[in-house]
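User: Can you recover a sequence for this backbone? Please restate the input before giving your answer.

Assistant: Of course. Working from this structure:
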């Protein structure tokens, strides 16, 4: 069984005072069997990495450019993320796909860039409500997975996050059997393509995960953790999700 991962995506939230939340999280749960990751805004990464230096909490980015350097105003490269102390990066989040038109091919290039900088890539995939209603969920997720993930993925370098777009930040979640259906589908695609490595790759669920539903979602077969937005901002909420994944 892959080691579970509780990953917090702070999105564009958090000033320096928010570092207190990481300290509070660590105080409440200094040791845990699951991995714990916070992906703060880029402005907080270095200071958070320093705070987390002697904690069992990893720090990650929320995006990276596919190039290592150059004339890309406002962008951040994978080596820059690694230079702050980051060890993970979220790629292909649906908010970036929707707002910046990121394509599966770009996400694949970014994933390779992340690996070249020794970062573990969390590649996000998921269907819109229209796609689910049209019974296209598995086709969409399968196609995103096939194109976004490069061929040389390993369990150490790739985490897949299944995030139904309609569940992100809405308070709505799929049923447990709908989550199981998609996660089992993703697992089968990963093992078909990557063999034994695919069996060990972590598949996170993301979309309105919260302290109340975390334990039920964590118990679904092939759910190896959560990618959590809103409920990761406050230690008092996120701790319950960490504990659910730790059980
Ligand atoms: C996310 O943004 O990846 C996410 C899952 O957000 P939320 O938990 O707020 O739905």
């Amino acid at each position: 069984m892959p080691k579970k991962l509780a990953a917090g995506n702070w999105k564009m939230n958090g000033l320096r005072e928010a570092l207190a939340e990481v300290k509070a999280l660590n105080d409440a749960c200094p040791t845990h069997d699951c991995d714990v990751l916070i992906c703060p805004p880029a402005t907080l990464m270095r200071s958070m990495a320093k705070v987390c230096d002697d904690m069992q909490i990893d720090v990650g980015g929320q995006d990276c450019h596919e190039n290592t350097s150059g004339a890309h105003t406002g962008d951040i490269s994978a080596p820059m993320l690694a230079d702050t102390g980051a060890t993970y990066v979220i790629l292909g989040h649906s908010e970036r796909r929707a707002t910046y038109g990121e394509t599966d091919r770009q996400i694949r290039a970014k994933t390779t860039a992340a690996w070249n900088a020794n970062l573990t890539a969390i590649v996000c995939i998921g269907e819109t409500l229209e796609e689910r209603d049209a019974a296209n969920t598995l086709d969409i997720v399968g196609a995103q997975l096939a194109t976004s993930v490069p061929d040389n993925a390993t369990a150490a370098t790739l985490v897949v996050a299944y995030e139904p777009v309609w569940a992100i930040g809405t308070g709505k979640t799929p049923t447990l059997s709908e989550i199981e259906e998609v996660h089992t589908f993703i697992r089968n695609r990963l093992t078909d393509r990557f063999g034994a490595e695919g069996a060990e790759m972590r598949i996170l669920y993301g979309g309105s995960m919260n302290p109340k539903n975390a334990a039920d979602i964590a118990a679904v077969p092939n759910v190896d953790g959560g990618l959590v937005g809103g409920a990761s901002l406050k230690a008092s909420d996120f701790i319950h999700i960490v504990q659910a994944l730790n059980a």
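That completes the design. Residues 176-194 form the longest helix (19 residues).
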